[in-house]
Amino acid sequence: MTTPVLNVSNLRKSFGEFTAVDDVSFNIMPGEILGLLGPNGAGKTTTMHMLLGLITPTSGSIRMFGMELATHREQILQQVNFSSTYISMPLALTVEENLWVVARLYGLPDIRRRVDDIVKKLEMEEFRQKITRKLSSGQMTRLTLAKAFLTEPKILFLDEPTASLDPDIAHKIRALLKEERRSSGLSILYTSHNMREMEEMSDRIIFLQRGKIVAEGTAQEIVTRFGQADLEDVFLKIARDSRL
Amino acid sequence: MKLHRIGALVARHLYLYRRSLPRIMEIFYWPFLDLVIWGFITLYLAKYQPQIPGFVTFFLGALILWDMLFRSQQGITISFLEELWARNLMNLFASPLTPGEFLSATIAMSIFKVTCVSIVMGVCAWLFYDYNVLVMGLWLLPFVLNLVVTGWSIGVFTTSLIMRFGQEAEVLAWSMVFLFQPISCVFYPLDVLPTWLKAVAWVNPAAHVFEGMRAVLSGSGSPVTNLIWACGLNGVMLLAMIAWFYKTFAHCKVQGSLVRVGE
Ligand SMILES: Nc1ncnc2c1ncn2[C@@H]1O[C@H](COP(=O)(O)OP(=O)(O)OP(=O)(O)O)[C@@H](O)[C@H]1O
Ligand SMILES: [Mg+2]
Q1: Which residues of A138-175 are buried (b: 16+ CB within 10 A; e: fewer)?
Q2: How far apart are alpha carbons A77 and A64 in whole angstroms?
Q3: Complex ipTM above 0.90?
Q4: Residue-wise burial string across B164-203, b where 16 or more C-beta atoms lie within 10 A, e elsewhere
Q5: What is the pLDDT of residues A20-78, one digit of tens each?
Q6: How many whole angstroms separate alpha carbon B135 and alpha carbon B144?
Q7: Which of B161, B185, B192 is nearest to B175 (CA)?
Q8: Are the beta carbons of B8 and A87 separated by less than 8 Å?
Q9: No. of helices (H) and no. of strands (E), chain A
Q10: Is B9 inside a domain boundary?
């Protein structure tokens, strides 16, 4: 049996009285794409931020590559990266300068080749010299994806990565993610509010609601278990039940 | 501590300076303007107050030294604000970068700014007022070093406050040093302060530096005692502020506010 690259057990985060993430446990295997699904405020982003060491958990443990995040932060974060539609990069630098800074931050060798590669892969040639301030929101998303790919992570955390992309680019990004997973065994934790994308991308889905895992399995398994036609209907059922 | 990560942050800030006029002005134009205004005031006062000996020397020397402290603090705090404004803190702290490396990079930027500003002010004072900062001789070096370190302490302190309290605290980046100015005795001796304020000023390392500066300029003694006090207080203050920065950083990660500052 292969060992998981990421192991989360009994993770909990409270902000004062309010519990945003409640006793969450899961694994991610090498090369696996795990979808994190749930209504607004379910705790998806909070979970990801804990995995990135940006938020300190109230209790529970996070292990990656067999190491505890709390004690091996540098070694772990060197091998992971993240992207989200909602993050930004320094606006006064050009796209290429931003990528160079990231490459240096992670101490990458052979920076010029890597930057060229990633720019080509994400079709960023026509704006690579542009000041980041002048990018459209979709171009910005591509830049933040490029910074995540640039460091060749073993685990990628993607928080709604395709939310602002046009269908053509979104399709290409999904193809790229699947290709990276196939060729280099990249593991991905993914959130999205696009149910079709979730079904297409995820090997396995975890359904979060008010910080708790309420369902887990392949998209097909979850759909069958809830006796619905598709994932969207499952989502609507769970989300509406919880709002009653 | 990994040098390449500190280097990456420094490079990121230097990229900013490469094409930003306001940021270049901050280094070259404002210190120059400061010097021009205060220089004229000094000349004017000197004309009517000939009984205070070496007036120009005191005033311009004090002004230049004070600016070192100010720019040193700005180098730290503004570097943090740049990341805040760019919403880049999340990218940085989800990378292997440590808070200590982050602080080191801001300190490197502070040294860069202070070096540029001192050259500008030193040269201008010499060209326009025929004033040579080097009249302080070799003492100038320990004076400047101490003031720069005081600037770091105030800078790290201000940065922690902004990190903790967010946008509302941003204005402290410019106003905090002026809270320290009256008790730094930049333009007047410690003696003129009321007794209770004297006690407060006494724990401020900058006050000892300026006392020392006056001693050297008036030729009334050696500033060694002042410098020993300044060094000791600086060491304690800087360590305390760095410890407080780490504490604030950890607190923000618990509150979940590190990813939200600036929003
Ligand atoms: N720093 C914080 N302080 C207090 N409450 C917080 C903080 N961060 C998040 N929360 C709360 O925790 C809950 C989970 O938020 P989170 O951002 O993880 O949700 P999400 O699943 O990502 O939702 P969305 O789909 O809207 O992105 C929300 O109710 C939010 O208000
Ligand atoms: Mg979210």
Answers
A1: bbbbbbbbbbbbbbebbbbbbbbbbbbbeeebbebbbe
A2: 9
A3: yes
A4: bebeebbebbeebbeebeebbbbeeebeebeeeeeeebbe
A5: 999 999 999 999 999 999 999 999 999 999 999 999 999 999 999 999 999 999 999 99
A6: 14
A7: B161
A8: no
A9: 9, 10
A10: yes
pLDDT in tens, A3-25: 999 999 999 999 999 999 999 99
With CA atoms as reference, report the closest residue to A44 among A189, A233, A147. Answer: A189
- Answering whether pTM is above 0.90, one says yes
Answer yes or no: are the C-beta atoms of A83 and A40 closer than 8 Å: no
Domain holding A139, by residue range, is 86-152
Specify the ligand 1 atom closest to the Cα of A211.
Answer: 14
Token pair of B138 as six digits: 């070799």
Q: In chain A, what residues touch B94 (CB-CB under 8 Å)?
A: 52-54, 77, 81-82
At position A167, the amino acid (one-letter code) is: P
Q: Is A42 in the pocket of ligand 1 (CB under 6 A)?
A: yes
Residue A18: beta bridge partners? A15
The CATH number of residue A221's host domain is: 3.40.50.300
Backbone angles phi, psi at A68, to 5 degrees: -80, 130
Residue B84 domain flag: yes
Q: Checking DSSP bridges between strand A187-191 and strand A155-159, what pairing results, if any?
A: parallel
